[in-house]
Design brief:
Layout lengths: L5 H17 L3 E10 L2 E6 L2 E4 L4 E5 L8 E2 L19 E4 L4 E6 L9 E6 L15 H16 L3
Parallel strand pairs: 1-4, 3-8
Antiparallel strand pairs: 1-2, 4-6, 5-7, 7-8
Length: about 150
């Protein structure tokens, strides 16, 4: 068995880590006045991502933002809050389910769901404080995701 010198071992480990980061994807989510499933929508409304992937929210229509929903993120996840009419990119590292809302249109049901890693969709817990139209939209998103439809 041949042992590598510490400097060579460190370089090898660094390259391995860089290769892992190089495989991370960036997902584009458009914030729209109307999407395929109705008004005030994110497109896509559901993203299945890997830990380390980045979600880039693009203001394709004016008047929207992307904000993490309190109580709808895995433990240890960093909350985020974009600004209206501005793009925001968020790198998600903690496996689990993330709920996202458009603050101005939250009561109208403008939400989306991000699944990071292998978290089961059946584990989704929507807090009671979520407005009724947003709760209905989450149910519809999960149903379409489980059925494999868009």
């Amino acid at each position: 068995m041949t042992l590598l010198p510490p400097s060579r071992l460190a370089a090898l480990l660094l390259c391995g880590g860089a290769a892992t980061l190089a495989h991370a994807e960036t997902w584009e989510v458009r914030m729209l006045n109307r999407g395929p499933h109705g008004p005030m929508a994110y497109e896509p409304e559901f993203v299945r991502a890997a830990p380390g992937d980045t979600i880039r929210f693009v203001a394709a229509s004016s008047g929207h933002d992307a904000v993490s929903i309190d109580g709808m993120a895995p433990a240890g996840a960093t909350p985020f809050r974009g600004k209206v009419n501005q793009e925001i990119a968020v790198t998600l590292t903690e496996p689990g389910l993330y709920g996202v809302k458009c603050l101005p249109h939250y009561a109208m049901g403008m939400v989306m769901l991000i699944q990071v890693g292998d978290a089961p969709l059946s584990a989704l817990a929507v807090p009671e404080a979520v407005p009724p139209q947003a709760q209905q939209r989450f149910q519809a998103i999960v149903a379409r995701a489980q059925a494999g439809t868009k």
